[in-house]
Amino acid sequence: MGAVGGMTSLSLGRPTLLLLLGRIAGYGLALGNSILVARALGAERLGEYAYAMGLAGLFALLPNLGINPVVTRAVAAHPEDEGAVLPIAVRTQAFLAFLVACGIPLFAALLPVQPVPLAYVALAAAQLGLGTLGWPYLAVLAGRAAFARVAAVELASALLGTVCLIGALLLGGGVPGILTAHVVAAGAAALVARAFTHPSRRDRRRPALRLRDLVRQAAPFGATAAVQSLYTRLDVLLLGQLASSRAVGLYSVAYKAPNLLTYVGSTVAGPLFPLMAQTGTTENPVAFQRALRALGVTGPAVALALSGLAAPILGLLYGSEYEAAAPLLVLLVWSAAANWLYAPLAVALQARRCEGWWLASLIAAFAVNAAGNLWMIPRWGALGAAAATLVSELVLVAIGTGLLAARLRILPAWRPAAGGLAAAAAGCVALWLGGGGPAGTALALAAYVVPLLLLRVVTAEDGRLLLGWIRQIAPRAASG
Known about the structure:
This protein is an all-alpha fold.
C-alpha cells in the first residue's frame, strides 16, 4: 500500500473484487437473517425491532469520529508507526463506544413518543457499542492492504451473527432475545477482528500518537461520518414518530435490498481513495473513470430488475404480508442506484482534500431529506419517506457532479452520461409498458442494454478486463 503511486486500474481490480466477493457473501447472510427475523416476528413486532435498531443506527458512525481513515493513512504511509497509532485508537474507540451505548437510551427517553420499551433501545445501543470495538483493527488491515483479511473478518462476523440469531429464534426469545443475540455476536466479532490483525508491537524509539493529534486529524472525517449517519437513519426515526409500527416494519423490509446495494457501491468505490489521493488534483485516472462507468451502468440495471419483480420477491422472501412494501422497494432501489453514482464522487472529493465541500453537500441533502420526510410522511406514510430518500439522493448526485467539475476539473464523459440516461429512460418505459413481472422485466432489461451497446458505453474490452481480474484473484484465493 505504501507504493500507492504505482497503482493502476488493473491492480485496483483485485482488491475491489476481493472485498466485493467477501461482502456479497456477508450481505447474503444479512439478508437471510432479515428474512428469519421478519418471519419470526411479524409486521407489528418487526416494527418495534426496526425502530430500536434504527434509533441506535442514528449514531452508528458517531463512535468512529474519523479515527479509521487516520489509522489507515498512517499505517499505509509508515508501517513502522502501527504500534504507535493503534493503541491510542483502540482506547479512544472504547471510550466513544461506552458514551454512545449509554447516550442512546438517554436520547430515546427524551423523545416525546416511546413506541417501544427502552430496554430494546438499550440492547440495540449495546450491540452498536461493542461492534465498533473492532473498527481500529479493520483500519490497520486496510492500511496494510490486507483486503483478503478484511473480507475474512467481515464474513466471520456475519457468520457469528447468523449463529447467534438462530439460537435466539430457537429459544423463542422474541424481540428481546434477538437483540441480545446481536449483542453477543457484536462482542465476538470485535475479538475476531483483533485475532485476525495480530497487532505489531510498539517501537519505543518512535513517539506514540497523542490523543490531541488523533482528534485533530480525525475531525473532518468524523463530522462527515456523523452527518452521513443521521442522513441515512432519519427516515426510520421520523416514521416511528409520525406513522404506525406496521409502516416502519414494511419500510424496513423494503429497505433491506437497497441498503445492501449501497454497501456494494461503497465497496467498489473504496479502493479508489489511495489512488485519487496520490494523483494530481485535477488528474482523472482511468481506474476512476472505469469505476464510475461500471457503477453507472450496473445501478439502473439492478433497479429495473428489482422494480419489475418487487412484489414477487417480497412475497417469496418474507411472505404475502409484506407484498404491500413493493412500491417502497421500487423507490428505494432507485435511490440505491443514485447512491452508486455519487459514491466514487465522494471518494474523489475527500481524497483530494475537498472533504469540507462534501460535508456541506451532505448537510444540504440532509436538510432536503428532513424537510421531505416531515412533509410527506403525514400525507403518504412510508411511501412519502421512500420518495424523500430518492429525492435527496438525486440531490447528492447533482451536487457531487458539480463539485467534481468545479473543484477537481473532472467533467462527466458525454458518451457514458448520455448513454446511461437514454438506457435508463428506455428501460423504465419498457417496464411500464410491459407491466412488470418476469416478462416485463426481461423486456425492460433488453431495452436498457440496447442504447449502452449502440453508444459503446459497454464494450468487449470491459469484459476482458473483468475476466483478467478474476483470473488473477483465483490462484491467490486457492492458495489462501
